[in-house]
Write a structure and sequence with these properties.
With about 425 residues, this protein is α+β, with helices and mostly antiparallel strands. Helices cover about 35% and strands about 30% of the residues. It binds glycyl-adenosine-5'-phosphate. The site of glycyl-adenosine-5'-phosphate has 19 residues, from β10, β13, β16 and α10.
Amino acid sequence: MATLDKIVSLAKRRGFIYPGSEIYGGLGGTWDYGPLGVLLKNNIKHAFWHRVVNTREDVVGIDAAILMNPKVWEASGHVQAFTDPLVECKVCHERLRADQDEEIKAHESSHKGQKVQWTEPRKFNLLVEAKLGVVEDQKSKVYLRGEITQGVHVNFKNVLDSTRMQIPFGVGQIGKAFRNEITPGNFTFRSREFEQMELQYYTEPEKKKADKWYEYWKEQRMKWYITLGMNKSKLRFRQHEEFERAHYAKDAWDIEYDSPFGWKEFEGIHNRGDWDLSQHQKYSGQDMSYFDQKTGKKYIPYIIETSGGVDRAALFFLIDAYSEEKNRVVLKLSPELSPIKVAVFPLLANKPELVKCAREVYGLLSTVHSLLPVDWDDRGNIGKRYFAQDEIGTPYCITIDFDTLKDNTVTIRDRDTTKQERVKINTLAATLTKKLQ
Ligand code: GAP
């Protein structure tokens, strides 16, 4: 079982995730993705876009601005209701979330038997504010979006008018969101800047029809994580109690992962009813209704939303894939998510004929789109190179040895089984492409 410490250390050491602004002492709740982290995150986003947008007739995508007219956030209810309950320890003045039992308990025990008194909970708004404008004292307040969602709903009419979409249909989006979290923590799990991958699916405003899509998308999203290799027994659905539900939600279910710090949400699936479009109609004065040409009915659609965190997914994919074996650490990531697909090694770096041939193989594989990125390594001994690739989840390593010079064959070494097979160089790209499918 991966501990969080081991994942944090691997992530830093191998270039997945670094603390944000580290040389200046960091900035709480921010993280930078390194060379391997950006590849992993891009693979997750690509897999989402492929499954939820590109392969569906009933879904299109958009990429809305992070900065929006502040009225958007008044209409959406976030200015008023996007809050967490904040309490302050009267002993040391640390501020925590009143609804995070484990953190409250850990804090109380840190005072070692001393009686800890808490202030009454007060509502703390999570929206991050910024100022826009060129005249110093006339800058206007804007918000960094607290969810990527509203960029889709304010464009509901634009999408209808510029495409042939008809209800039921969805709009997918991936992008950054910002929250002034009271207690960021558990590595990237609760950050102040993070990415979301969402689908907003518009349905007829009838409970039965919306519920059908709700069940459908719950199942689809759970399947997506399992297809990408997440251990089924570590996943579960949990329905929100009424008091937990966000102000916009009629119903809310989380997909949770059994993490080293307990069962934790990393995707929320919500029935938002007609909340968002009705509110935008009210606040903007624009008609946000849909006219159904088949039935002649005009209505404000319901919205079924799937809202996943890219960073939380990346963290849980890493934790889930982490495995310690006798003499190696291996990340058993699905090849679709592995940052590096193939690594090429000359058996010995000081034999120019081996290096020359390995460079040719590396060049050959680097032209094949489905195998990218391909890594090159000629440092240390071959065993160490295999282990270095295992630790970052590279599914296949190719070694060019002295037999290669005689018969044009190379070895393909499999990350999970460590078994090796020999194949001809002229069939290598096709063999690897097939294996990676
Ligand atoms: N549009 C709906 C929405 O934003 P949410 O449940 O507040 O719903 C959806 O957030 C997902 O966004 C969460 O399941 C989580 O994966 C991610 N997320 C939310 N807050 C986060 C944070 N502070 N740090 C990292 N990810 C976060």
